[in-house]
Amino acid sequence: MKKILFLIITILFANCALQKVPKPEQVMKYYKGFKKSDYQEVKKVLSDSLIITEGDYVMEFTQESYYEHFKWDSIFRPVYKIVELKNQGDQVSATVSVTSSRFEFLNNNPLTCKRNFHFKNGKINKIENLDCIDADWEIWQKQRDSLVNWVKLNRPELDGFINDLSEQGAQDYLEAIKSYKKQKSE
After folding, report:
1. Closest CA to 65 of 83, 82, 51
2. What is the tens place of the pLDDT at every residue in 106-136?
3. How many C-beta atoms lie closer than 10 Å to residue 161's C-beta?
4. What angle, 0 to 180 degrees and rounded to 10, lies between the N-to-C axes of helices 63-74 and 167-185?
5. What is the pTM for the complete model shown?
6. Dihedral over Cα of 129, 134, 139, 144: its sign
């Protein structure tokens, strides 16, 4: 009985300790995990479920399915830099600059975006992707469409990479970029 009581008290204290970590620090830990390519670090600050929004587009994740997204993102070797962090009570507003091989190809490197982080029980449960302040979406779309069309004609085995958010999809995306650049330079 003493062991069970000790275990319950330990779990309660550990849970309370996490909840007392300031929200901005949770966001910093989230990006620190990305910087170190350490999903376990990211997972520590995530709620059991996570919602990410981009305009009207809503993506729902469990911690396990978010790991797949993390692996997809990691293939492009992103480097995240927190430009600004503001604690706004129930949420944290962050401006984050990201460089990656994908953004480089899309001629939007770095890509600096504003995000709102929401919390439940001291953990991140929702990320709203807001405005990307330095994005040139016309150039982005032109580059993306050029690559997609080129792949259909020249590397059809890679077709569909643009919608494949798996680790393999990201590897195919990089292979498409590499092949496209190689042919364009010849």
Report:
1. 51
2. 999 999 999 999 999 999 999 999 999 999 9
3. 23
4. 20
5. 0.82
6. negative
